[in-house]
Target: Gamma-glutamyl:cysteine ligase YbdK, ATP-grasp superfamily
Amino acid sequence: MSKDFAADVRNVLAVDAEAFQAEAEADAEVVKTELRDGTFDNHQSIVGFEYEFYAVDDGRWSGDKDLACSLMRVPRRMLELIGFEKELGLHNAEMSTSPQPFNPHGLRAQESEVLARLSAALDCTSAEGMRLVSDALWTIPPAGETASEYLASSVDDDGVDIATNMSDAVRYHAMANGDDMPDTFPVEAPNVSFEASTVMPESLITSIQPHYQMSHAADLPTYFNYALRVAGPLLALGVNAPFFPPDLYDEGVDAETIVAEAWDEHRISVFESVLNTATEEDKVAFPKDLETVEDAVDRVVEDELFVPMPVTRDGDRFDDTFATLRMKHGTYWRWVRPVFGGASRSSANARVEFRPIPAQPTVRDSLAFQAAFAGLMESLPQRRHPVVDMDWEVARENFYAAMRDGLDSGQRWVTNDGQETTNPVEVYDDLLAHAADGLESAGCSEAESDHYLAPLRARVDAARTPADWKREEVRSRLAEGDDLHAAITGMQQAYIRQQSETLLEGTFADWV
Model:
């Protein structure tokens, strides 16, 4: 960090909130005008992808199996070398793919880009005794540190609280400072009571985020409302975070209780509990249905203001014309959210960003969710699937039930013939059939569609998710006499070993 980093944070905190909000409101009118003029319309659907990782010790230099898979900080120069972006924690690295047309060539380009860049990154990090891991929530802290020490470490720099292990992005650090900010940011989950003076606990989690850009911006509410209905069922297939680092659990709670009461996807609870502490209204939340595309713009404007940042408008990008609104969108955290952007008028776009899915065991599993989401966005509106008429409250209940219980959550769905069901076979037969229909409507052959969706079908057939695998591993180790710390650590090491053999070419279905 620079010597004047604390001063940079103070400069952000000094931004005039009322002036910032007024600029965001003016920007919203710019976006609405461009929407009416058709600037955000395109002749085709486009897909994109964000993929987050964390780094661990691969054991090369330490030679100590007890240190293998310990969390590692990624040097900033290393991120530049591998072409990844920084995220909240120093252990994080994020890849964003180039947007591609939603057709067979575009999907193959997405897959090829992820594989090419990730394989190169793995080669580069391996030389430093480091490995990038695709996982939802890390559980082994850096060697010689506890998770609570790593997450809570901070220094007071002339009245500014600076998280020691947080990336040097001013906005992240500003979240912990300011007169209206809470003293602590807690993680709230079954049998976990942990808090820190900064938002660093959010760095426990990593995700994948598919994007779907529709042809006509005015149709965004239809796609958005369908995305809310598929959020629960897709999350139930993707759950991958039942455990925390062992030292974060409450003292005096036995291991069997912790395992039995753990939710399947604690990434959801971490993100919500840490960041919602700082605002009067929940900013990390399951959003309401949209009626018009203008409503999507207004929601960002009306969202509770949180860390207004300085904005410059001297860039050449088209979306610099609404730069303050874009900046405010950066703290508009919803599990599904609309996005308006574009470097030029010709590339201006409106899209749906789908944020419920955690990082997955393999690349193919991760891209299966991208393909399934895009296929569903293509098929469900075209077929006028009746699930869009399912009450919003049911969609929300599905989402949080999936967070807690994964495939055992009793997801409620409306099939194509209008029948409501909670039978998981019927739910996923209909859901994945429409995902396949959307892929084939986009030009994929039946074989290509099967290739993309096979990892998800395998989970349905086996009734087994990555969270189930982790529970099985921990329970097995507890039965063999391990304490909770050894059981979770052993599970995580086994996860990373399995992944090292399957990340680029296999699927979770290959795991035993």
Remarks:
- The domain at 5-505 is CATH 3.30.590.20 (Creatine Kinase; Chain A, domain 2).
- The longest helix spans residues 104-126.
- The first strand starts at residue 46 and ends at 57.
- The chain has 17 helices and 13 strands.
